[in-house]
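hey so i finally got around to running the thing on that chain from the lab meeting. sorry it took forever, my laptop kept dying and i had to restart like 3 times. anyway pasting the input first so we r on the same page abt which one it is
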Amino acid sequence: MPEKDDPVVIKKYANRRLYNTGTSTYVTLEDLAEMVKRDEEFVVQDAKTGNDITHSVLTQIIFELENDKDGQNMLPISFLRQLIAFYGDQMQMVVPSFLEQSMQAFSKEQERMREHMQKAFGGKHADMMDFSAPMKMIEEQTRRNLEMFQSAMQMFAPAASPAPSRPQPNENERSASPSKDETQDDLNDLREQIAAMQRKLDAMGRD
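ok and heres what got predicted. didnt touch it at all, straight out
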């Protein structure tokens, strides 16, 4: 029997049916979406192999929600294009951590944002609504996210302190190791890619 705090195991069968082992009932993707909203932890396993397929199932839930004719899209086309562009890019390894930290920070601020949204849009008189407050909070959160990203990228930056002087290498040493110019060019290329990503994130924040 699973412990109380263990995630619920959802088994997915070949016929695509999902079985909640915690409640001993079959469930749908909509049910799993509601579990996420209730902050209920679960993992999805392939019933035959036992492999963890939680990622693919959560992705499928997002796909269904984004294509719900009665729902509202949350992922802007510009964001989807930018996200696709990062696949295969050398910055790909940084993006998941950055997005995760950004969403965690946003989640921590959501209650305060909801209070401002309620004050802005829940009033009876339109002339008393302060529409700028929620947007300012979102802009501030975007700025913080960029600062977190810049901090994460410090690992790629060269050390600020000057390196100790070294004797000049001979011709054989020069040919066996990359030149200073080549290393600097690589760093410049990386900085340009980081700057491009920051510009995209700035544009997303303005949107």
